[in-house]
């Protein structure tokens, strides 16, 4: 058990380090830094328990704290902080051994880019550059959906409209909504949830996944059985509904929960009528 605990701790520290570097890449992608981004960094860093021993995170949090302490942010302070961010991006070594590591880096990059609710030309170029260097992930969820969305927008709308629509889409993909909420808590998967008007409970096949606010997964399964559903252990072409719990991890590709989501999305793209719905939406129809 102790070995498992240390393994999980190391894995979580690595995820946090990947997120740190990715977010900083996004924040400085346009070579500019504003007060909203500084506030975002302050709140995000304070929320990262797995970075408490990370020297770069400690230095960065101290620097941000000093800037915000007197309530006045000067140009010199912004320039010094931007230099620190760029140095961390340049010199911090975080191995990206698996595809999911690169997916997490991309999601963090997106979070940094959209932190101030702006997507400008330089930031869009940074996203395109990352995707170009990682084109082997174009079939990997959720990067495949981002690429598809960008291609659709490029063909159908003006550059200005594309930037605004893509900004809103990227916020949903990353689950980030800092400007509206002041919180760095992410709510991923909203962008793939189906909005439905009704649910046919009786004899419909269902897969439940994730952690639920309404109870344990077994509790949820019992409720589903009571409503007449047929329970499936995994997502397949025969699945009618995939219901995901509200306590969802943003690193969805790193575990079985993420695998189910990815497979369900793939089946939807292939034309199968599977519905992906949240715990709260499902509850509203019980």
TrEMBL record:
<dbReference type="InterPro" id="IPR036420">
    <property type="entry name" value="BRCT_dom_sf"/>
</dbReference>
<protein>
    <recommendedName>
        <fullName>NAD-dependent DNA ligase</fullName>
    </recommendedName>
</protein>
